[in-house]
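Entry 12.
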Amino acid sequence: MRHQTTKRRAGPPLAAGAALAAVVAAAGMPAAAEKLDSALENSERAVEDTQGSQQRIDQLDAQAQKLLNDYRANLKQLEQLRRYNQSQRRQIDAQERELTSLRQDIDNISSLQRSVQPLMEDMLDALEKLVAADIPFLPAERRDRIERLNAIMDDPEQSPAQRYRLIVEAYQIENEYGRTIEAYRGDVTVDGTEYENAEFLRIGRLGLVFKTDDDKVLKIYDADADAWRDLDHAFMDEVKTGLRMAREQIPPKLLTVPLPAPEQANEQEG
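Predicted 3D structure (tokens):
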């Protein structure tokens, strides 16, 4: 019974202590809540700060990457410009060498003109002698060409290069006469008789024949006698064929016309 009595007495103090603890806990709850809220706010601010820092880091990284790409692009462009400048320098060096050469040519132009002028005069004189000694084909045309060249030689507005070019062209024309045949019309006087608009056949520089339209006159030039002589009318068909060939009316073929045999130049020793 004592024991049970003792248990009953111990009951009230325990209940009082639990109640006191509950009161204390209840009293401490607002402070803990405030601390928890504060901790949560701090945590949220920390997260926000961390996110902002990460954004700044990302921006800085993007800027750094852009700067790196720009730097690499600039390096590549710099290399291209360096190679381009080297190429331009080589061209400039070549142009400077060419300018130096041109200046030397300009300095020598006076001496060149002094040497070329007599040469052109000799060439023109030789051309005039050639035409005079040749068989008399296209006489007016060839004389007019030489007269024009003589006038050009005295024309101060014509450059030496232009004069030389025209003389060379005249030589080329005369050279072509030696390996072509030609048909043309012209006037000719033989033994006081003038034949107007006669039909001529030139065979290289070896033969020159003309006939009248009525076929009554057929003559060939004799270079040894420096005169025209009659040509046998048996050659009339051949002459007509040659005229048609010269006009390219028929294909080329062999002609039977009395021409002087080619002469071999004498070799002179010395």
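Annotation: The chain has a mean pLDDT of 84. Residues 178-257 form one domain.
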